[in-house]
Specification:
- It is built from nine helices and eight strands.
- By secondary structure, it is α/β, with parallel strands linked by helices.
- The protein has two domains: 163 residues, Rossmann fold; 66 residues.
- Helix 1 crosses helix 4.
- The longest helix is centred in the middle third of the chain and has 16 residues.
- 43% of the residues are buried.
- The N terminus is likely disordered.
Length: 280
């Protein structure tokens, strides 16, 4: 699949083993032995507060935003890749993969760009210009297929609906309003609400707290490995719907993988979802 234009590398069927970072520790493809709960949280929510509660059913769905509700990630990759191409360099796919679904790695991208350029760059100006171009590229984008259907299904089931995004609130809320989807969401949790974004679980724990549910009662909908790892660290079930940018990346433990949200029947999936040991 070719995402960028001239001088922009293509993303093809490569499978990447990612290294995740959390609180100064690093794990290849997530910590071994316990990928669901018990991970350190550097945000404002303590996962221990949820222990000891018994829940018999799913009661909430929590959406990611970028790449799941709206395809902003194709434009994001393209604008960064074109920036690198201007300096006769390529944006490494593994570096971009670490940034997808997280806001904690943009400085690392610019560090790499400066190393390729051989001198310091005006990062503030470059980022402003890149963001403006990204906004223009996604201006005509519509909600991805199946998004509205799943939102309506959740409402029919009586589930609470939240959102956990590593992007800032103005970005997310502005696009939701434009797409006519804002009214579906009871809670929006964004990078302003936590100290660390995905793959740290703080955003998902904060969203569960906001919705008034135990993390084990919620299912997260994600498109990126960073987001999926954050959801599993929070103790949630996770359904992934990789997009054009993320479908070639390696995901860790998830509960279901789909090609499109159009394929998801929440009621049927919930009925076949096994009850966890801690919910018995």
């Amino acid at each position: 699949m070719k995402i960028g234009g001239r001088g922009v590398p293509e993303i093809r069927g490569a499978s990447i083993c990612l290294t995740w970072y959390n609180g100064g520790e690093q794990y290849p493809s997530g910590p071994s032995g316990n990928r669901g709960t018990g991970f350190p949280v550097t945000g404002s929510v303590d996962p221990k507060q949820y222990k000891g509660e018994e829940n018999q059913m799913l009661r909430a769905v929590i959406f990611d935003f970028d790449g799941l509700i709206l395809d902003t990630e194709t434009a994001g990759y393209r604008t960064f890749a074109e920036m690198f191409a201007a300096y006769d360099a390529q944006l490494p796919l593994d570096l971009w993969a670490r940034a997808i679904g997280s806001s904690d790695h943009h400085d690392e991208i610019y560090d790499h760009l400066e190393a390729a350029a051989g001198h310091k760059l005006d990062r503030e100006t470059l980022e402003r210009e890149r963001r403006e171009k990204k906004i223009s590229l996604i201006a005509r984008e519509k909600a991805l297929p199946g998004v509205r259907s799943v939102l309506e299904q959740a409402g029919e089931l009586g589930w609470k609906i939240g959102l956990a995004s590593s992007s800032d609130r103005a970005w997310v809320e502005g696009h939701l309003e434009k797409l006519g989807l804002r009214h579906y969401f009871s809670c929006l949790c964004n990078r302003e609400d936590v100290e660390r974004t995905k793959p740290d679980p703080a955003l998902y724990l904060q969203a569960a707290k906001c919705l008034g549910v135990d993390p084990s009662e919620a299912v997260a909908l994600e498109d990126s490995p960073n987001g999926a790892l954050a959801a599993k660290r929070a103790g949630m079930r996770c359904i992934i719907v990789p997009n054009r940018v993320t479908r070639s990346l390696s995901f860790g433990e998830v509960d279901l993988r789909l090609s499109s949200l159009e394929e998801l029947n929440l009621r049927e999936w919930a009925q076949t979802c096994p009850v966890r040991e801690e919910q018995r």
